[in-house]
């Protein structure tokens, strides 16, 4: 415990340098702008900026990327409140109450509450990160190939299920497609080339960064330009932006609950900030005394959504750092960036470089402070950013997509990968396939493949330990139940069974 | 595309159901090809590896999983009533929105596959940004802007993007450009 506190203090002092503070300031501000601009998402921002941090020292590079990530998740609330368009998918729930508040002439209050809620949500998540991550990393040291195989599968299945709530089948298909992409290139157990069709560039497999830039960057450009409607900014931001302490504390229970829900959602692999916001919003509405106000400008609803989505960011870092399972799509890019900079996330992180965890905790604390300062002071300049015509913006973003996918390995092939993933990603999005399971599949494919076959090699081909080891058995059971419950015929029968039982008890 | 594929209350739009049917067929072909590729993949028998650890094992299992999901999607699409679905889907594919997306794709492909590598990167970037802004502000916009309104902005942004991207990436961050 004391060791942890010491390392946390070490992490904080490590970044108390002019260069670090400068990086925190510009990266958080850039993140807020990226999040505020409709069509630019947190994942896209982080993926594009990996290139810029390529030549930086590892700690400064991760600092910049983390600040962009948390800044972008917050920045989306601006657009949600003023334009009724979520700047990032994470802010979709914010739109429901944030925009009605703006229409009532309380845009300033809505922006202020969104800022303080985001900060509080991140702080709750940071506590969980500092407390849970070391414990999880220690527990993960006992995991073998069997457990890691099931964890990888669990990540893809649960992400497929939760990111496509209306249609889990499409979520599963997206996840399988991602896993299939990961099968291309040299496999690591026997060093055999798979599905390379004699193309040398495919030997190393499909790189995550160009794939992510395509799926989240180019696909987004196609989607944004496709629409012709331009939203109108609600210009009634004359009221105060800094909320009163009583307004923040009035809904402290909602803040705490949403923070915990957001953190938990973040811990679940591949389930991002949007699910965190919706889950927190739904929970707040269910227990609120003012449920009738939700959707009509409820401050409680706004607080729930913003606390929930921001708490996902530190929550997502828990599996990312301790198990190398990305907690969200943006965290998947962070894993790739960490590998580029020589940091190996996973169970050995706490043994090899425990300071990294506490440095990330410190980074999140600093970025939260920066969000508070920028969010409460830069109201007018951020309004100007929102009025940039998207045709002009998207042209520049595509140039960054090209540079971003080329710069890391300096191969034209990666640009073609970006374009291909952009086209496929756009078509899949139009058909309502979620992108998060696809990305998770690409990053977890190798883990799944290697651990399944390594486990089978250790047992001489006997699959029994995959089902009999306690942790493996539990994860396997959860996966089976998740898949079974997503089949409409089965879930309806189970629900009917419970209803009949409940009716019997009531009688 | 989805501008036309609006979801009616209580279920999927007919166009989406037909689109699902088409994609399920694509996934069936993809999974069958991958299954064949996995089955015929070298089993490294000369290296005497355990047959349960052959390189084709996981791709084979994945293609089977995709095949099952694709068949479920196809059956669901066939069973769900979707009157006028093909017509709606056709209208969506030929809509103004699809035309705009198609134009983005065209410009992006010309820039990426044609200009980059053929002319210096800064020039390719300038041409792309200029063309992109003019096409989507003057031609495919609603309401349209006049060439006189858009051209100064387009030229300014083209020059600025070409200069800033080249300077920031090549000089400040020492990243090579295509």
TrEMBL record, chain A:
What sections of the protein cross the membrane? 24-50, 62-87, 107-136, 148-165, 323-344, 356-379, 391-407, 472-492
InterPro entries reported for this sequence: DUF112_TM
* Superkingdom of source: Bacteria
Q: What keywords tag this UniProt record?
A: Membrane, Transmembrane, Transmembrane helix
The record places domain DUF112 at 22-440
Q: What is this protein called?
A: Transporter
Q: Which organism is it from?
A: Devosia soli
TrEMBL record, chain B:
Tell me the domain of life: Bacteria
Instruction: Write out the entry's keywords from A to Z.
Output: Membrane, Transmembrane, Transmembrane helix
| Pfam families listed in its UniProt record | TctB (PF07331)
Q: What InterPro entries would the database entry show?
A: DUF1468
Where, by residue number, does the polypeptide cross the bilayer? 21-37, 57-76, 97-115, 121-141, 153-174
Keyword Chloroplast recorded: no
Residue ranges occupied by any DUF1468 domain in the UniProt entry: 23-178
Q: Tell me what this protein is called.
A: DUF1468 domain-containing protein
The organism encoding this protein is Devosia soli
């Amino acid at each position: 415990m004391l060791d942890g506190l010491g390392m946390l203090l070490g992490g904080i002092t490590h970044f108390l340098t002019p260069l670090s503070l400068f990086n925190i300031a510009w990266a958080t501000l850039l993140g807020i702008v990226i999040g505020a601009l409709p069509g630019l998402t947190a994942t896209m921002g982080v993926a594009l900026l990996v290139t810029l941090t390529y030549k930086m020292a590892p700690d400064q590079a991760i600092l910049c990327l983390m600040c962009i990530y948390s800044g972008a998740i917050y920045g989306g609330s601006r657009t949600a409140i003023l334009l009724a368009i979520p700047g990032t998918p994470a802010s979709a729930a914010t739109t429901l109450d944030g925009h009605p508040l703006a229409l009532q002439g309380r845009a300033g209050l809505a922006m202020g509450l969104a800022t303080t809620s985001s900060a509080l949500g991140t702080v709750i998540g940071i506590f969980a990160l500092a407390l849970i991550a070391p414990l999880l990393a220690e527990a993960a040291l006992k995991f073998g190939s069997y457990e890691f195989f099931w964890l990888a599968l669990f990540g893809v299945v649960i992400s497929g299920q939760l990111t496509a709530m209306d249609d889990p089948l499409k979520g599963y298909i997206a996840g399988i497609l991602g896993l299939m992409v990961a099968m291309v290139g040299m496999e690591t157990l026997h060093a055999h080339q798979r599905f390379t069709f004699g193309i040398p560039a495919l030997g190393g497999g499909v790189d995550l960064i160009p794939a992510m830039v395509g799926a989240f960057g180019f696909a987004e450009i196609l989607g944004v330009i496709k629409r012709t409607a331009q939203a109108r900014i609600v210009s009634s931001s004359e009221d105060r932006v800094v909320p009163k302490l009583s307004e923040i504390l009035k809904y402290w229970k909602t803040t705490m609950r949403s923070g915990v829900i957001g953190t938990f959602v973040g811990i679940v692999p591949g389930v991002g900030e949007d699910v965190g916001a919706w889950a927190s919003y739904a929970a707040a509405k269910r227990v609120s005394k003012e449920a009738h106000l939700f959707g009509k400008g409820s401050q409680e609803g706004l607080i729930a959504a913003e606390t929930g989505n921001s708490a996902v960011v530190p929550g997502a870092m828990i599996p990312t750092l301790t198990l190398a399972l990305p907690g969200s799509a943006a965290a998947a890019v962070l894993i790739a960036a960490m590998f580029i900079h020589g940091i190996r996330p996973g169970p050995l992180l706490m043994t090899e470089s425990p300071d990294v965890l506490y440095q990330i905790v410190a980074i999140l604390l600093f970025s939260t402070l920066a969000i508070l300062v920028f969010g409460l002071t830069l109201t007018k300049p951020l309004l100007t950013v929102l009025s940039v015509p998207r045709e002009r913006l998207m042209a520049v973003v595509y140039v960054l997509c090209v540079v971003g996918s080329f710069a890391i390995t300096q191969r034209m092939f990666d640009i073609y990968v970006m374009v291909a993933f952009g086209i496929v990603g756009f078509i899949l999005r139009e058909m309502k396939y979620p992108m998060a399971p696809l990305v998770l599949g690409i990053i977890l494919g190798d883990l799944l493949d290697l651990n399944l076959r390594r486990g089978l090699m250790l047992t001489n081909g006997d699959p029994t330990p995959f089902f009999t080891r306690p942790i493996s058995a539990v994860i396997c059971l959860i996966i089976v139940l998740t898949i079974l419950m997503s089949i409409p015929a089965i879930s309806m029968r189970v629900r009917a069974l419970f209803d009949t039982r409940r009716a019997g008890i009531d009688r | 595309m989805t501008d036309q594929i609006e979801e009616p209350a209580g279920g999927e739009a007919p166009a989406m159901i037909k689109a699902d049917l088409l994609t399920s067929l694509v996934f069936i072909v993809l999974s069958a090809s991958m299954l064949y590729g996995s089955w015929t993949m070298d089993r490294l028998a000369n290296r005497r590896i355990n047959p349960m650890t052959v390189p084709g094992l996981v791709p084979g299992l994945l293609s089977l999983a995709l095949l099952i999901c694709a068949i479920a999607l196809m059956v669901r699409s066939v069973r769900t009533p979707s009157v006028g679905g093909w017509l709606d889907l056709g209208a969506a594919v030929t809509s103004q929105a699809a035309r705009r997306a198609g134009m983005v794709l065209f410009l992006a492909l010309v820039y990426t596959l044609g200009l980059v590598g053929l002319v210096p990167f800064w020039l390719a970037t300038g041409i792309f940004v200029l063309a992109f802004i003019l096409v989507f502000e003057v031609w495919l916009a609603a309401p349209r802007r006049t060439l006189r309104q858009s051209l100064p902005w387009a030229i300014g942004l083209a020059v600025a993007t070409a200069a800033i991207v080249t300077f920031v990436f090549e000089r400040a961050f020492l990243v090579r450009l295509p």
